[in-house]
Amino acid sequence: MRSSSLLALAGVSALSASLLAACGGDDGDGGKGGDAVKVTASDSACEVAKTELPAGKITFKVLNKGSQANEFEILRPDGKIIAERENIGPGTTVNFVVNLSAGDYKALCSAGQTGKGPSRDIKVTGSGGAAGTADPRLTDAASEYKTFVLAQVDDTIAKAQKFADAVKAGDVAKAKELYAPSRMGWETIEPVAEKFGDIDPKIDAREADLKPAEKADWSGWHLLEKALWKDGSVKGKEQYADRLMADLKNLKGQMATLAIDPVNDMAHGAKELLDEVATGKVTGEEEAFSHTDLWDFKGNVDGAKKVYDLLRPVVRQKDAQLAQDLDENFAAVEKLLAKYRKGDGYVSYDTVPAAERKSLGDAVNALGEPLSKLAGAVAK
Amino acid sequence: MIGGGRTNDGGSPAAGGESVARGAAAGAGGQRTDRPGAGGTPSGRMSRRRMLGFGGASLLVGAAAGAGIDRAVAAADEGDATTSSAVPFHGPHQAGIATPVQDRLHFAAFDVVTGDRAKLVRMLKEWTAAAAAMTAGRPVGAGAVGGPEVSPPDDTGEALGLPPSRLTLTIGFGPTLFEKDGKDRFGIRDRRPAALVDLPHFPGDNLDPNRSGGDIAVQACADDPQVAVHAIRNLARIGFGVVAVRWSQLGFGKTSSTTPDAQTPRNMFGFKDGTRNVAGTETSALDQHIWAAGRDGADWMAGGSYLVARRIRMHIETWDRASLGEQQDVIGRDKNEGAPIGRRREHDPVDLPRLKPTAHVRLAHPDSNGGTRILRRGYSFTDGSDGLGRLDAGLFFIAFQRDPRTGFIRIQNNLATDAMNEYIQHVGSGIYACPPGVREGGHWGETLFG
Q1: Cβ–Cβ of B240/A269 closer than 8 Å?
Q2: The domain A137-379: what is its CATH number?
Q3: Candidates B2, B150, B237; nearest CB to A379
Q4: Fold of A2-134
């Protein structure tokens, strides 16, 4: 399988092999047909039909008999995730291919997709499986990207702390000033941060996206945004400033186990960042009260650009036309965005007329389309 | 969520999607017309590709030997056509003009967002390949399924399992492609045909710029709305970065036919429309009134035609309150048979003096316009309601002609006193030069940019 080389990113502390899983959607594609290992997941159990397996590509045929969406993970004994398959709906079966070399592993089923759940020990023996055949450029890119992500988290924490302090001091004007800058680091790495599924909704949920039952537990940036811009007061909201900081620090703690896959985390993540721009920022939905959407826009584009810059040498070699399209369209979006710079930041999005929003949307579509081909080019 | 939903969980979209897709398409509008000679074709049970082996309904029985043929067999005249067969893409004229009018429309106008001529030509070549594939019932590029799981599929997939549905894709170039804000954008300013004028303001116009103009237009017609929408969607996708959709319009029922032997369709006023339209078989009338010739001034347009599109909003509610007598006087025909006032049969010649001086048919008639004729290919539209409880409905007028100055513009000026104006308003407008057809191995725009 062409993607097997991606697996051996030995330089990265742990590696997600979900690319392989993605390639093995059907029986027989890399999974050696009928040799699939049956896994039956339920809300409380994780049954694995065979726990001693030969090294190489192993197909897990995961049936979710539970009532909640399940997530299947292969981990090292120390808890680092090797590969995961999310969103296995109740009653559905997925084939999940993982390339494993000899060693001890855990297979874990997580009902509700919290990352926690019952697991079984697996022993892999033999000489097959992932070996040192990785493209070193991708190994380096993943390693560098992880450094970037960690730096962005640190930056976010530092800026969010100033924002939180202003909220706690009841200084509305200052808090408004610090709100958008505090979010930019987060916006550059959002898809990676979303891997830690329970944190994103705590710090970045919009009120309009909440279910009625969730409203009482709403927290995070957008709660404070509403208080600052709509109510004009953050009185009684001090606890949310503290919670935001606690959640961000929790994110930083979890980042230690972060495994970066150049295809799924980087290339797909970059595409998802542009999706964020296309669906949330161009429309002005993300920052319904503060209208600081262009800051987030910039953060999303910067995050995608960082990924592309790191993967660009590989893309240029594998698909030169795609590299040229991406070069041009990143430049076009950045140029357009620069028109709206004001001081250290951006103009309020409610001052951007509809015709100009359409131009922004056109530019985002022009970039998003080739960006959706990045993963395929890298995996080639 | 990262990684969610990207893995194929098995199942066969091609087989499984077919009945669902067809059901949705047929159910969405409920307007599918069972045309004479087309009913009962078991196309829904056949794969899109298999259908290509068949030329028409008469061949369907026991013709399995033809199933391997990739290219569609033409069914150019409606007598033989089924609602599912393919219309040839290549030829001296673009399909979708003299072609028997299909039931559904998706019309899209694009703005070119690059200043790079080479990029534009590259996209036109990609569009041509996609158009040739889709009109033959094939998916775009490497298809909708079966490709690498890490990449989005080339084709968006909603036409999987559907027959070609007589899809035609017709391209036209607007005045702003040649010159915009005084700028010769692509080095083709001097190739702008004299006939591609900027349409003048007509009395009563209330044009919305967001529903008007555009550098490039594509008319997608098909007997299945899902096939037409699929075509525009995929062209728009291929075009990102080079073009952006400016506006688009769906049409659900043809209001004119180019096949006078078939039943004349009715428009949203409830009247038969297009009785005296130019027929697709009237070769000499097509040459005289519809196809542009090299000697007209722009040699790259030889074999092409000029498209005028008008989004004509109908004041449905007030029209429905008009008495039958008034309605018939306004149109100039009787509502049942469609006969001209004072005559008995629909196709009887119009006796102009018998019609009121303000009757629509009288003012639009060739005899009132120096003998000029245009080929109408319009569709009814209903885009929900307008927030005031009124249907946002009307006629998306499309006409092809050899020269709009002597065609649409002349007639539209003559309609200034049309009694129908009380019940309509023109709210969108476009004019486009549609080049001749594409030869095998050629591409859209070849005669203009070549």
Answers
A1: no
A2: 1.20.1420.20
A3: B150
A4: Immunoglobulin-like (2.60.40)
Q: In chain A, list all ranges with CATH 2.60.40.420.
A: 2-134
In the stretch 54-93 of chain A, residues with CB closer than 8 A to chain B read: 84-87, 92-93
Reported confidence tier of residue A64, pLDDT bands at 50, 70, 90: very high
- Residue A294's φ and ψ, nearest 5 degrees, are -70, -25
pLDDT band with cut points at 50, 70 and 90 for residue B81: low
* pLDDT 10s digits, A267-315: 999 999 999 999 989 999 999 999 999 999 999 999 999 999 999 999 9
State residue B36's pLDDT score: 37
Query: How far is the C-alpha of A155 from the C-alpha of A182, rounded, in Å?
Result: 8
Among residues of chain B, what percentage have pLDDT more than 90? 77
The candidate with the shortest Cα–Cα distance to B171, out of B442, B438, B440, is B438
CA B25 – CA B224 distance, rounded (Å): 7
A321 shares contact with chain B (CB less than 8 Å): no
What's the CA gap between A365 and A359, in Å, rounded? 10
Domain boundaries, chain B: 14-33+41-254+441-449, 283-434
| Fold that domain B283-434 belongs to in CATH | Alpha-Beta Plaits (3.30.70)
Q: Is the pLDDT of residue A84 over 90?
A: no
Which of residues 90 through 119 in chain B touch A, CB cutoff 8 A?
113
User: How distant, in Å, are the alpha carbons of A137, B4, B146, B159 from that of B8?
Assistant: 29, 11, 10, 19
